[in-house]
Amino acid sequence: MPKTISREIPLAEITLRRYEKPSKVAERELVRKLCLSVGLLQPGDSRDIIVDILHVLVKAKRLKKELSSDEIEKQVIEARKKQKLALHGIASSNIRRQLKRLRDLFIAEKVKNNYRINEFEELGTIFEEKISKFYIRSIVDRVKEYFEVLK
Prior knowledge:
The protein is mostly helical. It has a domain at about 25-120: Winged helix-like DNA-binding domain superfamily/Winged helix DNA-binding domain (Arc Repressor Mutant, subunit A, Orthogonal Bundle), CATH 1.10.10.10. The chain is built from five helices and three strands. It has helices at about 25-35, 50-60, 70-80, 90-105, 125-150; strands at about 65-70, 110, 115. A three-stranded antiparallel sheet has the order 1-3-2. The radius of gyration is 18 Å and the shape is globular. About 20% of the residues are buried.
């Protein structure tokens, strides 16, 4: 009987990219670079709805406000129209899928049926405590295990 090969589905993954230092540009562009830096957006992607979703959540965080997915959708559409951007990817199902991606990376959380930046915390703190210390550390530790086994 052949051995069962473990599934090739990763338990966790993250993409990190290094860009130039943040400069004095529009806040949306800073959010875009952050999304590119942590792999939420791929270079050259024209469908960048994740940028507007995160931007809406960042603005709501300043007001300590939680938003429903419908409120997020409305604000995203409004922001994209204001910036004269195409309204690609604004379907409710896609908004919820992108919110799930933000939750999976510990940036956003769902409280009852509303979303917010995780505990209204500063993004730098979220990166340091949740992503760097916990998420990346666990991935690096597992990769080290593979290196050790294959000495």
